[in-house]
Amino acid sequence: MKKKTKNLAHRELLRLHVESVWGVQLPLSIDNDITIVPEGAMPSWSLYVAQLANERIYIWRPDVSSENRLALLERVHEAFSLLSTDSLAPNIRREVALHIAAQPTIDKVVANQIAQPITVSTHLEGYHFTPQQEPVIGVMREGRLLCVAHSAHRTAQACELGIDTQVEARRKGYALAATVLWTEEPSIPRKEIAWKRTNLSLWPPYKPVRSAPSA
Asked: Which of 24, 84, 144, 188 has the fewest other C-beta atoms within 10 Å?
């Protein structure tokens, strides 16, 4: 029963992610093979395949023919056989999304000593953000923005976190501190399922929900 509940939670996270990023509408029941609701917006891709633990979810555009489906399935299966460091075939993209799997190893007090809110009054050279990206949390050292967390995609049900850290500033806890403060912002809905759309496997307590090629 616990495993089934966990899988249902991951499917709901997948729904929130796909609907918020591409503005599409998925069926109420997320089965292993589903089609986007045709009355809504359509994404640029024809097929999105999500790997959830030991199962895969196939999300199709409604205008993909049966013949094209077979061809796309062959390409996706080939993509899944590759290592994460291998190059993908043309017109196939890979992403990794992560979710909170445990309580952070630092609290808000410590995070405040490392990161800070970034507002329109904060002097930043070369970095600009829109109100839709708020709240924005950053780590600054000597006037340089080394790490930034912002709202990448938002719906009424959830908000997806986008975060980036300068290469030379990684593995110092900056991303974790910025994430802790970002999730504490009152404007963020459903904090317990905040997403991180970059490869931050080196930054516990996040772990992948799925790795998904789209074609």
From this structure: 84
Domain ranges for the chain: 2-97, 100-209
The CA angle 155-5-9, to the nearest 5 degrees, is 15
Render each residue's pLDDT in the chain as its tens digit; 215 residues: 444 445 557 888 888 888 888 889 999 888 999 999 999 899 999 999 998 878 899 999 999 999 999 999 998 888 888 776 777 777 888 887 777 666 778 888 999 999 999 887 676 666 677 777 888 999 998 888 899 988 887 777 777 788 889 989 999 999 999 988 988 877 766 544 444 443 322 222 333 333 455 66
88, two tokens: 């993908």
Tokens for 60, please give them.
Answer: 């199709």
* Residue that the structure tokens 């045709």 belong to: 38
- Among 198, 203, 197, 201, which residue's Cα sits nearest to residue 172? 203
Structure-token pair, residue 171: 């593995």
| Those residues with Cβ within 8 angstroms of residue 215's Cβ, 6 or more apart along the chain or in another chain | 45, 46, 47, 72, 75, 76, 79, 91, 92
pTM beyond 0.90, yes or no? no
Computed over its alpha carbons, how large is the radius of gyration of the chain? Answer: 18
SS3 of residue 11 by DSSP: helix
